[in-house]
Amino acid sequence: MTLHQGRHFLNIPGPSPVPERVLQAMDRQVIDHRGPEFGRLGREVLEGCRAIFQTEGPVVIFPGSGTGAWEATIVNTLSPGDRVLMFETGHFATLWSKMAARWGITVEFVPGDWRHSADPAIVEAKLAQDRAHAIKAVMVVHNETSTGVTSRIAQVRHAIDAAHHPALLLVESISGLGSADLRHDEWGIDVTVACSQKGLMLPPGLGFTAISQKARAASKTN
Fold this sequence. Notes:
The protein is of the alpha/beta class. The protein is 35% helix and 17% strand. The chain is built from 7 helices and 7 strands; from the N terminus they run ααβαβαβαβαβββα. The longest helix is centred in the first third of the chain and has 18 residues, at 36-53.
């Protein structure tokens, strides 16, 4: 019989182990979710989220996994029949593209070998050819959990701008946020998708989206 000492350690890409001080913070009696203490806590958490995403804009928190945050991003910024540009950087980029297709989105999925990131040069070339601006969004996984490949998001934004194209930049940073450099405002990201259980080292169950003014405007028309 094998004897185990200490806490169980989940040695997979995620959920990440939750630090002891976070576990202790959770070990408290519930508070009134309609009272002033909860209101103060909520404002503090939302303000802290903006700092983590490095944005002055709103960050939305809702119950759900990263998959739920994927879906929220798709249904609130795109419509059935819209066309998007995506890159095969690994397992999760593939799953996100399949989800978009299930919502009736036409996905131009650039094939890859799961060893290289989204290529900004291809982004610029594809968008430059799209003179009718049929492509509504470029959707990129920031850090591929399955491979460790990290895409150059700032360069992807530069490529979109160089092509003078109005496409939204939608970034999945589920294993990137808190683990790798991510600058929502500075890099010109329109929606950053994240969740609680990877770089933030929290229990699973919360999704996050940081949203630009351009993305908020798009959501009102969908």
